[in-house]
Amino acid sequence: IEHFPLNLSCSAYSNPPANYSWYHNEKLLEAQNESQLLISHLSLNDAGKYTCNATNDVTGLFSHTSLEISVLGDFSSSGQIQFLVLESLCLLPDFWTHTTFFLSMKTPR
Predict the structure, then answer these.
(1) Which Pfam families match (predicted)?
(2) Mean pLDDT of successive 10-residue segments in the chain (109 residues)?
(3) Which residue segments constitute the domains of the chain, with CATH numbers given?
(4) pTM of the prediction?
């Protein structure tokens, strides 16, 4: 929901520890190189596809996962019911997962 925080977390089992990079709609987020991505106040422009890449610089192996984020406008004054759908797609060698999350909430009047 617009103006709320968003915290995305990415983890990889790697020796040495993985290096992380984050993308928003295929564009590298330059200052984001940790396993967590925090957006303190969402705006409508923050909607889109977020991708985390985890890379082992020694072996050259990497993995990535993506999540589609929808940002709803702030309807808090209208008392409307809001729905949020999050979809996650994880691609790994010989295996993939796809998860859809539904969140609904009624804002107070």
Answers:
(1) Ig_2
(2) 89 90 95 89 93 92 91 65 49 44 44
(3) 6-103 (2.60.40.10)
(4) 0.67
